[in-house]
## 1
Amino acid sequence: MTAHDPTPETWRAVDRYFADTLVGPDPDLEAAVEAQRAAGMPDIEVAPVNGKLLHLLARMSGARRVLEIGTLGGYSTIWLARAVPEDGRVVTIEAEPDNAAVARASIDRAGVGGRVDIRIGRGEHVLPTLAGEEPFDLVFIDADKESNALYLDWAARLGRVGTVVVVDNVGRGGAVADAGTTSSQVIGTRKGLALLGEDPRFEATALQTLDAKGWDGVAIALVVRPGEA
């Protein structure tokens, strides 16, 4: 076997191989991405292999109720909605009404609209309104990075012992390791990771990723102590 240095060409070739072999073509997901791009939204949805990871984590954890913070065009929402049972629910929060409308059309076209509740508004405003509902079994955080620590606090509050929490984009192209950064997104990411490392409500780890979206990372945590909603 010949080893290669992880250049962009090689890691993207590996990502395409993984996606072709383990994910395959999916007209509904591809249509969701096309609709997102046609609407002028940024090309920042999760890579196919990461969408499949979310799907499998939801199934492995037996999730019935999923909370997603950051809907965008609904690509990851579709992956999550396919993972919950027919009577399950994905509550997804999107700050931009236009984005939510595009996502709703794509989610409905994929045949999972009955399982998805889109709440429009900033996470900091919507999350408190969910207090008192049945706890969430899995939380996916993929919104403004400046608010990661806030979102993680609410993940614990709205979850339960055993809730799985996934935070996307924690590698920031390597910038997350720069303690002197002035980027608000990187600072927010570092604060979120520090919370995961220090807060007794969580046990967590993080992995670097090299995929269609470049060099980044994902944090995966388990709620091990109850939060207070």
## 2
Amino acid sequence: MTDIIIVGAGPAGLTAAIYALRAGRSVLLLEAKSYGGQIVNTPDIENYPGLKHVSGFEYATTLYEQATGFGAELKNETVLSVEDKGDTKEVKTDGGTYSARAVIIATGAKNRHMGIDREEELTGKGISYCATCDGAFFRGKDVAVCGGGNTALSDALFLSNYCRTVYLIHRRDEFRGGAAEAEKVKAKENVKFVLNSTVEELLGDKTLSAVRVKDKISGETKEIEVSGLFVAIGQEPDNEAFRSVADLDEKGYILSPESCETRTRGVFIAGDCRQKNVRQLTTAVADGAVAALAACSSLE
């Protein structure tokens, strides 16, 4: 029997582990992939209070080492369900079944796909959802980034250091990302903007060779020859496994007040998988602290 099981080892989950362990509780972290979550793909974090510059991987590694240093146990298993057994919660994974007195769900969100033909077929063959992971493979080549938020701007800026030309395709005429980041991208001579446009078709035989984009205003289409397309159009949660213990909104995010409680006593929520207006590193770690303290209080 573990005091608290935390599902997800991203910034929210690791922060929750640190707070719970410092409160004297035993903690088991269950993570389907590797620790750190989406932040590990960020080349440079410069908006986290107290840290002028740090890579996402460095930050996540430090957070992981801090949590395990306090005694957190991490198992790489995919959680299939969480069941309320009254005073205990049963967590089933692809590797076993675990019991805890409280559960914190901190699964974050996954990359949203464009939803067009051949996207799955060409993933890994020109289509990527992580510029920092795959950008170096396209050194000296022409690529495109699809999106207009902070991630898309950051990806375009990162790729401009490796690639010959970076086409930034966005369905609006203004970016949703921060003004400072947008100005940095605009200053790059090898970044070309394709605004008010959407990706309509993926071209190429076995690998991506071009994209066909449509101008939303004129209705005209054109082909842009690229070797790679980096999709950065936002994220979506993966909370179906928790529907029995938590309420989900129409987009799949878990409903919860700022206390990070769910409708089930002893089950809490933290980070990007929670319905909220702002999803940033700072809000994720804040949720982790709130959820952990709430979970600890529920055990008293």
## 3
Amino acid sequence: MQFNGILFFVIVIIIGYLSVKSRLVPESATDVLPPLLLNVCFPAMLFLNFAKTDVDELIGVGVPTVIATLVFCLLPFFVSIPLFRKTNPDARPILRYLSGIGNNSFVCIPLLSLFLTESEMTVVFIHGAVVDFLIWGVHHQIFLGSSGGARREIVRKVLLTPNLIAVTAGILCSVFAVRLPEFLTYTLDGLAAAVSPIALLFIGMLICRYGLFGWVKSKTAILYSLWKVLVLPCIVFGVLYFLLPFKTACILAIVLGSPAPITAVLWAKQYGKDTKLAVDCLIPSTLLYFAVMGTILTILLKSGIIGA
């Protein structure tokens, strides 16, 4: 199953690439797919997962996941403030954003869902919910500015983002044992199933739009990819190994090592920042993540540590 899943990954990314290359799909589709995924399909997946998860399991897994996510997402960010203070102003917010935030929706969930059980995926979804809060509550302010209007926009985004609404609704359904109508479950299942195909098609389209090897001469992109995908997960695992169950420490290390987020590219374009830097960091870190974490997940699965 995992081998077929990896082939599915590769084939759908290639289809996304070729669909734009052959002009069957316009390049502008890369501007449409992220909102569709993040605001429709991904919330459906989040809601279903949390609604089906036992309350005790949510508490037992959720508390350490929330704490670990906050620590290992915010610590690199605070370190990056003095580290990049002399960097070009167009690159500074991107590098600070990329330091601790990863691509949970487009990369982590499609990949990890091939290897983890529904129960194990709860860690991934809780991590994603916390990251979503940090994205809008902390990092968006850096791109948007600090005016009163900007602050109101940040509060609105934090409170009304579809992902957080879906998580809250799912938890309430779990707590009060709400049973959804069959037609609604079927509909949400269909939307959730679209997450992986849309995410992978988008990655292929993005590679076609910006080029597969445009990052090769970017020392920053290479160093970032090594830091985020290799060094940070080792640090996370080294710390959590002594604090959490081995399996949980492994999963958190893998998700916290996720590559550059798509929103870095979208925000760079929207707010006039260094879009090329965001793209240069996105592509190699994503390719490295698929290769490294795909291998590690396969080893963990074969060893019986995950997927049981």
